[in-house]
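User: Before I run my own analysis I want an independent prediction to cross-check against. Here's the chain; please return only the structure tokens and, at the end, one sentence I can use as a sanity check.
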Amino acid sequence: MSTLLHTLQTEFDKFYDSSSREPITKRCAEETQTFKLQLKKLKAHLAKHIQDSESASSEGNEIEKEKSKRRKDYVVDKLRKSHKSWDQSLKKQVKHLSQQHARFGRVALVKLFDFGGIDDVYVNKLPAGSKKAVDGAISFHISRYNIGNLSVNGGAEMTRYLNDMYGIPEKTSSKFVEMGQIVQDLKLGDSTSCRKWCVENSPLIFELYVLECLQLFARGNTLETYHHLTAKLPPCSFHQITKHVSPILTQLVLGQTIQNIDEAIQLQLKKCISLFTKEYCARKNLPFDSPLFLIVLSGVISFKFFMKYTTIRAASHVDWTTEDELPFDVQLPNFLCHFHPIFICPVLKEETTEDNPPYSLPCHHILSKKSMERLSKNGTSTFKCPYCPVNASKSKTRRVNFVML
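Assistant: Structure tokens:
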């Protein structure tokens, strides 16, 4: 595949000028424009020549007639040379483009279709039964991230749109329709639906209150803004009042304006949407981040390690024989990792937690931190793996992070 891409790129580059890196067609257009300007200049010369010829004829001056004839011959010769130069250059460029177009089809495009399909060149193929899961992840991703940006209104219409455009089943899209409609309302400046959805003591309530205050302030209605600030203040901390409420109230009373208020409203709106979607996903038992996004991001971060491993493997003529396990460690960001909710330590028979995380032994079997400390007597001695007869020490273990899927 890399050879094919290199061939395509090499042949495609020949449609461009090697020095300026501009398309050859652009050079043709530029030369045509230059020739057009020369024609305008020659037209002015010819007009002057005609005027001089008429003047010389009326006076009967033979010397002036001869000069006029020479000027005419000069203009005609200049015109002939300019046209010839432009014509030859254009034919040369067109010939080059035609030859390169034919070569591109003969060398590059033929090879492009030789393999028949992407499955014939992609060596790391997914298992046959995984297509349904991949399609489901793509559907979930589109629903999760695009539902709040759709221009359609109404739950049924939105669900039908997602099904017609992306083939997303109603079972998937219906989970995000309500969330998308509330996000749309927030973007349009209406927080009523979001307020109705909020549960008591939710931190989102105060953030919506601040957003509404800023929006009222921007509209310039002083009395309505003052009433909202004082009469509709939700339960909050003293710190929240001094940081967010007091500055708005002070500037309102003093008749001052809030600098960059439109930018402040957009930042507060993003904060409210983020809090709302997190609470919504938590209450609906949905992952906040798309699994497809997390997997792709993990792959991008891990790619350089795979490339390094491939280079080492080719040079050392060795291969990794263990299935479903990476031959190297990849440090992923914390938000891509969490503790698997069903991993139970085989020694303590307890679920791993933040305080008692899982650790991988040299043999790649996994124990909890507390059980490992007990087996190694707080790291002072070696111990035998409960799964197999391999001996291990605490210094040779590694903490395990499970990718969130």
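Sanity check: The mean pLDDT is 80.
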